[in-house]
Design a protein that fits this description.
The complex is a heterodimer of chains A (113) and B (116). With 113 residues, chain A is an all-beta fold. In chain A, 0% of the residues lie in helices and 60% in strands. Chain A is built from no helices and eleven strands. Chain A is globular. The relative contact order of chain A is 0.35. Chain B is mainly β and 116 residues long. In chain B, the strands form two sheets. In chain B, strands 2, 4, 5, 6, 9, 10 and 11 form a seven-stranded mixed sheet that branches. In chain B, strands 1-3-8-7 form a four-stranded antiparallel sheet, with no helix packed on it. The chains are: A mainly beta (113), B mainly beta (116). Chains A and B meet through strand 4, strand 5, strand 9 and strand 10 of A and strand 5, strand 9 and strand 10 of B.
């Protein structure tokens, strides 16, 4: 079962604009992670935010987490053509001591030059 | 040059045949994972292993089998019992959660399996 629901499913913006992607989930989590996937490739980890954190930054990325609403957002500022990819949120659950990631369906981001 | 390698990149299989996908890592990670990705979808967990000689079923283990005889290697066999095996398969590794954490997962480039 997929816990994360991402919104929008697809997003197309002009280079230089900001891109915001949202993720909602259903159960309590230990942490939430965002990954990027270029077409036909493996996933690359972008950022991890723990359940007791509200906001985190990494370069042009800003992630927020609202555990009361069970939602997170990923903001990419000053977008570039190279940011074109699919972005996935993954909620981390601990089951019998092991961290399991449950992925959303992803947001397909297109940056138009 | 550390990382995760998967081979082959593309794999074609006839119906009724078993096929084994390779996953090797030199990151010295104890934990390894196998995911399946269908077009336009997220990843679903097939199997995972926290330590050598131990592994657990994920959410969609039926029709798949794994082994973990070495820390570096976690091969996945897609058996003829898997009804719809055509998909993109991704292997990942991480520091195990027992070491503290939380930790991110590092992914290989994937194997695209097509059943003819």
């Amino acid at each position: 079962s997929q816990q994360g629901e991402e919104d929008p499913q697809a997003l197309s913006i002009q280079e230089g604009e900001n891109a915001t992607m949202n993720c909602s989930y259903k159960t309590s989590i230990n942490n939430l992670q965002w990954y990027r996937q270029n077409s036909g490739r493996g996933l690359v980890h972008l950022i991890l935010i723990r359940s007791n954190e509200r906001e985190k930054h990494s370069g042009r990325l800003r992630v927020t987490l609202d555990t009361s609403k069970k939602s997170s957002s990923l903001l990419i500022t000053a977008s570039r053509a190279a940011d074109t990819a699919s972005y996935f949120c993954a909620t981390a659950l601990y089951i019998q001591g092991a961290q399991k990631l449950v992925f959303g369906q992803g947001t397909r981001l297109t940056i138009n030059p | 040059d550390g990382g995760i390698t998967q081979s082959p990149k593309y794999l074609f299989r006839k119906e009724g045949q078993n096929v084994t996908l390779s996953c090797e890592q030199n990151l010295n990670h104890d934990a390894m994972y196998w995911y399946r990705q269908d077009p336009g979808q997220g990843l679903r967990l097939i199997y995972y292993s926290q330590i050598v000689n131990d592994f657990q079923k994920g959410d969609i283990a039926e029709g798949y089998s794994v082994s973990r005889e070495k820390k570096e290697s976690f091969p996945l066999t897609v058996t003829s019992a898997q009804k719809n095996p055509t998909a993109f398969y991704l292997c990942a590794s991480s520091i195990p959660s027992a070491a503290g954490g939380p930790y991110e997962q590092f992914f290989g480039p994937g194997t695209r399996l097509t059943v003819l």
